[in-house]
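Sanity check record (used in CI):
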Amino acid sequence: MDVDRKDLRILKAIADEETRSPERIAELTDVPLSTVHYRIDSLRERGIIRNDHYDIDMAALGFPITFIVEVIAEHGEGYREDVGDRLLEIDGVTQVYFAAGDTDFIAISQLSDRSMVESLVSEFESMDGVVRTKSTFTISTLRDGHEPLQQYSMETLVDELLDQER
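Expected output for AsnC family transcriptional regulator:
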């Protein structure tokens, strides 16, 4: 990882405020506008910022481990919201899904190393309402679709969204 605190402040402002405006980023971070421009260009050159949407390559940033945890919860009144909300609050958890079948929730995390994995697993296992977890490491990323419409042909989009009576 070849970033410093200033880079991290810029990346965090981009993510938290969902802005691509260098002026807004400068305002949020108290980093001079010219420095924001320079840093964003540098982050692009290093492959950390992937594109004009400012999508972040988490592996290039220093979080190379994609970790998937299936969570089986105690079923009771309000468990979906209670457990789901607690999963959303865990550092490193980037996506949470409520699922049907043998698994109640699926949580996806981007982590830096094995110690972060161990901490995350401990946090899941100590959470009230969690019966057990099943964890999976990914070996490599085949597709990380930040633009989901790219995965559909125009014909499929028209057939599914326009040609059917709803």
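The first helix runs from residue 5 to 17. If this sentence no longer matches the regenerated tokens, the check is flagged for review.
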